[in-house]
Input
Amino acid sequence: MEVNINLNNQRNLKRSKRILRIFSLITLVLAILTGVLLAFNLMEGSVFMQWFYMFYFLLFSISLYMQSNGIHLLDLLGKSYFKLTEKGVEYKLDIFHKKINSFNWNEVEFISIKLFEIKVKVNKQLETINLEKLSDENLQMVKEIFKKRQSEIVEKDMLLTED
Output
């Protein structure tokens, strides 16, 4: 069981590569058209706004094309992810924070699951994991994994108290 969730790109919308590329082509044509009109001085108005529109359409076209190829703009700024493995949990919830939080399952003493957060007691320290950035589908999947681990911890505690 290994779950890797990229928090920058977790929308479960089925976007068609073809549709994104068509819109990319349309905005590229608008950028070229604006550039041609600017070069031949056929548009009236502020030259600054004409350049602005041309660069806007060009950048928007590039971003749509990158998304059609599976590259997301937020990934260029930094990574934010949630990773669950058999060994433990590793997560970085914000692209601008450098700290990566992680813990092993065998270090977990207690798990409390709330609506959008999970409290985990690891090595006698309470750690709160905020799950607000997860999509609904990913939130349910992560909660199920933590519930499974929670029941394993309770079973282990029950066995220890019986002895």
